[in-house]
From TrEMBL:
<dbReference type="InterPro" id="IPR040079">
    <property type="entry name" value="Glutathione_S-Trfase"/>
</dbReference>
<dbReference type="Pfam" id="PF13417">
    <property type="entry name" value="GST_N_3"/>
</dbReference>
<dbReference type="GO" id="GO:0004364">
    <property type="term" value="F:glutathione transferase activity"/>
</dbReference>
<feature type="domain" description="GST C-terminal">
    <location>
        <begin position="85"/>
        <end position="206"/>
    </location>
</feature>
<dbReference type="GO" id="GO:0006559">
    <property type="term" value="P:L-phenylalanine catabolic process"/>
</dbReference>
<dbReference type="InterPro" id="IPR010987">
    <property type="entry name" value="Glutathione-S-Trfase_C-like"/>
</dbReference>
<dbReference type="InterPro" id="IPR036249">
    <property type="entry name" value="Thioredoxin-like_sf"/>
</dbReference>
<dbReference type="GO" id="GO:0006749">
    <property type="term" value="P:glutathione metabolic process"/>
</dbReference>
<feature type="domain" description="GST N-terminal">
    <location>
        <begin position="1"/>
        <end position="80"/>
    </location>
</feature>
<dbReference type="GO" id="GO:0016034">
    <property type="term" value="F:maleylacetoacetate isomerase activity"/>
</dbReference>
<keyword id="KW-0808">Transferase</keyword>
<dbReference type="Pfam" id="PF13410">
    <property type="entry name" value="GST_C_2"/>
</dbReference>
<dbReference type="InterPro" id="IPR004045">
    <property type="entry name" value="Glutathione_S-Trfase_N"/>
</dbReference>
<protein>
    <submittedName>
        <fullName>Glutathione S-transferase, N-terminal domain</fullName>
    </submittedName>
</protein>
<dbReference type="InterPro" id="IPR036282">
    <property type="entry name" value="Glutathione-S-Trfase_C_sf"/>
</dbReference>
Length: 206
């Protein structure tokens, strides 16, 4: 029985895990779940009711995308995505934290704007603007950090690029009004290059 990944195809956090699974050539079963549906079963495996959630062969669950991808990188020697130690490891994990932070802010802004259980009079435009400011700052930092390098960390694909690519892809999916490609063409080139990889092409959010 292969590992099971519980998640939603639209989630950038789930996509990050799916890309890592593909790049590591690991076998798994994808179990789609909508965490907003009243009858979802996510809490059976993750008491927080969040995805992604990785259920291993013995039934033990691992959750939070950062924990999952770190675990997955140890399962196969194919294409190491996270350096084992030192400053190189810290650099990759910092890139991941930056990219995930952009997604976190984007998710909060979207929920404030569209969550059906909140009345329009209860929505805070100031809160939305605060989150959009974090997105702008994160994009600026990613653009400066990438510069003219082929990848975010070193000269080969790493978790840095996967996290950044998933963040950028989700912004294009949910926030097409943010014209980040015009301001940071290097990030656009990186995403376009990543989309040529089967792992990214097969996990485009929908």
């Amino acid at each position: 029985m292969p590992m099971k990944l519980i998640g939603a195809t639209a989630s950038p956090y789930v996509r990050k895990v799916r890309v890592v699974l593909a790049e590591k050539k690991l076998d798994y079963q994808f179990v789609p779940e909508n965490v907003w549906a009243d009858d979802n079963r996510v809490a059976d495996s993750n008491p927080l009711g969040k995805v992604p959630c990785l259920v291993m062969e013995g039934g033990e669950a691992v959750f939070d995308s950062r924990v999952i991808v770190e675990y997955l990188d140890t399962l196969s020697p194919v294409g190491q995505l996270i350096p084992a130690q030192g400053r190189a490891r810290a650099a990759v994990k910092t890139w991941e934290a930056l990219a995930d932070g952009v997604v976190d802010a984007a998710v909060l802004a979207r929920l404030e704007a569209v969550w059906a259980q909140r009345k329009d009079s209860e929505r805070s435009q100031a809160w939305i603007e605060r989150q959009l400011g974090k997105i702008d700052a994160g994009l600026q930092s990613m653009g400066q950090g990438l510069g003219d390098k082929p990848f975010c960390s070193g000269n080969a694909l790493s978790l840095s690029d996967i996290a950044v690519g998933c963040a950028l892809g989700w912004l294009e999916f949910r926030f097409p009004q943010i014209a980040w490609r015009g301001e940071y063409p290097n990030l656009g080139r990186l995403l376009d290059k990543l989309m040529l990889r089967p792992s990214f092409a097969a996990t485009r959010p929908d």
